[in-house]
Amino acid sequence: MKLFDIAKIIDAQIFGNKNQNIIGLCSTNNPKNQCISFLLNKHSCSENFFNSIGAVLIEKSLCSSIPKGVNILLVENVKFAFAKLTPIFKDFKNEVVFCSSINGSDYLNTKIGVNVGKNFTCGNNVIIQDHVKIGNNVSIGHNVVISSRTSIGDNVNIGDGTIIGSEGFGNIFFGNDWLHIVHIGGVIIKNNVSIGGNCNIDRGTIDDTIIENGVIIDNQVHLAHNVLIGEKSAIAAKVGIAGSCNIGKRNMIGGMVGIVDHITTADDVTISATTTVNKNIMESGVYTGIMPISKHVTWKRIALWITKLDKIAKFLKIKKI
User: Fold this and answer.
1) Global pTM value
2) 220, 237 Cβ separation under 8 angstroms
């Protein structure tokens, strides 16, 4: 599409070449020629970003931060405008090209954009959509969905009921309603990975969700969009990792751990079960964020004192103790 056609869709002002060809969307971390990205602040991109981008989507407050010669789409709300563009540049159909109950595995390699390696096995009612690549020695359990834009390496096992490449939970509230961001990234699962049953691994928003070599994942784990799991990490059951987290190598994450969005962890980190991680972990080690179980009456007293810690700290400082 031409830049001026895109500007009409999102009600944007153009500064620069209105005839610039645009072929897709990209992130600030992975700028591409002839693609559109967006900026929320002047610190969210590298210096090389502006040399590699087709156009940038911004709000008025950032105009002075954009170098001359860069094509600009000026809008009232960047996230809302970007969300409106995502369905336009989605280049896959979520088309079912294989269902194990009706087709043999040899059928897969006859479909454009789908490739399956040697020794592929799967259970009943496995669904594979368009634009999927599967390596050698891959075993898939019953009732598994492999969504579009998924790449699976060699020696991978996927348990029953797991969904790979599900649509991520990205939404923008603007005006009086929610607008869903269509996720156009994919999922990359590298070699020697084991994924348990009833897991959900969301596709990336723009860039891919990535599981590195040698990762093992238990049952009922949710990895949100744009998550990266470092090699040889282990994730126990019922863990939830929110969007855009970067988990280091050889991390061990205990059961029912919750990790909020945009968290980074160092290599060789162990997180105890049921811990909530709400800040970056920059050094290796064992981390725990839970209170020991106690009787409810005792816990109520503890909770009362926790709410008064600020006042206690101020009092001690005044007394110089």
Assistant:
1) 0.89
2) yes
